[in-house]
């Protein structure tokens, strides 16, 4: 098998159209690193390693990436893919190379049953929900917990949504138990698909108790690391897990966790970590592999948040993302850094 002869890491800084609020802080400029791996046959694989939010200086992560990339030089592609604890961006680049070598899209390297299209949710502020619904998105994600919850309930009730459109709400751990209960009781008759991270103090017991009070699916996202995957698989406290490959340890690790979680009853949504078009393409290929039936809308429509990007984003129309048929990721960079 061909050996790795080149490794390159190029930092990027992508401006956001509007500031993006996360559980870790507000982001205006998204940082990360483009990963390029080259084999002795001239093949080039691409990956994206986004900085940890809230996007502060990540010297430690960059050092880890460089050490790991240098350690793979001279090794076969198979040996490199077996390297323990590969960073997301490096694993993606290696898988891109391997998929190109086999002549298949990355998604079919991950699963032979992967499809070419993935359902996605839109992302919008409260005053932009209707516009996204009118563009054909069946699921629109909106942040809540930014104002007193009664005011947000009133705003949600004022919406005039097209029939069949559902809202995916994300509270980013904004509320106490009492506030979360009040909010959930007040929206139970609205078209709510799920509510992510309602509790400020997230633990298995508290989440399970809150889920028992509502028919709305609760979801765990950023609390996954705090609670731990193994604990969540023993006795699911909520109905859904939101998985970010950039944080979970890569595409293959996420695929494994998703399979285990589904086996105990979870619904699975995969989402980006607000990375470049290269990272979005990697996560989209994963979504196509783990959800060929398109049962869920995944969090992949984040390229629209950027003023500019490192590659042409994958096309999305009426809530469906279409993946390229070419081998590997199927994307190329706009410019060579």
TrEMBL record:
Domain Mandelate racemase/muconate lactonizing enzyme C-terminal intervals: 122-217
InterPro entries linked to this entry: Enolase-like_C_sf, Enolase-like_N, Enolase_C-like, Mandel_Rmase/mucon_lact_enz_CS, Mandelate_racemase_C
Keywords: Metal-binding
CDD domains reported in the protein's UniProt record: OSBS
Pfam families: MR_MLE_C (PF13378)
Domain of life, source organism: Bacteria
GO biological process: amino acid catabolic process
Gene Ontology terms for molecular function: catalytic activity; magnesium ion binding
Name of the protein in its database record: O-succinylbenzoic acid synthetase
Organism (species): Magnetospirillum fulvum MGU-K5
């Amino acid at each position: 098998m061909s050996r790795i002869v080149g490794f390159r890491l190029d930092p990027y800084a992508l401006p956001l159209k509007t500031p993006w609020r996360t559980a870790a802080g507000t982001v205006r400029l998204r940082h990360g690193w483009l990963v390029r791996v080259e084999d002795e046959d001239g093949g080039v694989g691409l990956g994206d390693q986004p900085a940890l939010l809230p996007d502060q200086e990540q010297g430690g992560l960059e050092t880890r990436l460089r050490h790991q990339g240098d350690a793979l030089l001279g090794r076969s592609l198979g040996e490199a893919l077996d390297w323990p604890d590969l960073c997301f961006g490096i694993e993606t680049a290696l898988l891109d190379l391997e998929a190109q070598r086999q002549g298949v899209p990355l998604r079919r390297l991950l699963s032979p049953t992967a499809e070419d299209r993935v359902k996605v949710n839109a992302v919008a502020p409260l005053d932009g929900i209707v516009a996204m619904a009118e563009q054909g998105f069946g699921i629109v994600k909106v942040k809540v917990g930014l104002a007193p919850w009664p005011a947000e309930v009133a705003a949600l009730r004022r919406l005039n949504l097209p029939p069949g459109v559902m809202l995916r709400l994300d509270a980013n751990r904004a509320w106490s138990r009492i506030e979360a209960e009040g909010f959930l009781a007040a929206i139970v008759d609205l078209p709510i698909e799920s509510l992510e991270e309602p509790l400020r103090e997230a633990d298995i017991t508290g989440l399970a108790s809150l889920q028992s009070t509502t028919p709305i699916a609760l979801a765990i996202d950023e609390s996954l690391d705090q609670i731990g995957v193994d604990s969540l698989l023993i006795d699911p406290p909520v109905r859904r897990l939101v998985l970010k490959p950039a944080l979970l340890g890569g595409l293959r690790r996420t695929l494994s966790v998703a399979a285990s979680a589904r086996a105990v009853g979870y619904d699975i949504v995969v989402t980006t970590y607000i990375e470049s078009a290269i990272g979005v393409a990697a996560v989209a290929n994963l979504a196509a592999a783990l959800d060929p039936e398109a049962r869920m809308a995944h969090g992949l429509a984040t390229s629209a948040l950027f003023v500019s990007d490192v590659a042409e984003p994958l096309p999305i129309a009426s809530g469906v993302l279409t993946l390229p048929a070419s081998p590997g990721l199927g994307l190329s960079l706009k410019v060579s850094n």
